[in-house]
Specification:
5 strands; single chain; globular; about 30% helix; two-stranded antiparallel sheet
Amino acid sequence: MTGGRVYRRSSKRAQQANRELSPKGIDKGVGVARALEYLGCSRNARTFGFGDSGNDLGMLVAVETAVAMGNAMPEVKAVADYVTDDVAHDGTVTAMQHFGLI
């Protein structure tokens, strides 16, 4: 506990050295919801989220279309509307083409 705030730790994958700290109750989903509110958009606006790790789950449920990368953790694929190629094989581009975004 630091300065009265409780932080939660999030790890993308055990084999990576990536760590995230955020205030308790705040995640990528909260950020997406606040951005949509600021922009005057509803949750049902045409929004897409791309993720591969547990720290992306909040974001993926906050958008209209959840896209899991091919290398995503099983729990991320379970909430996805679409599973694309992995990051190393241009999965983001593949998904954007699939949905007619590019």
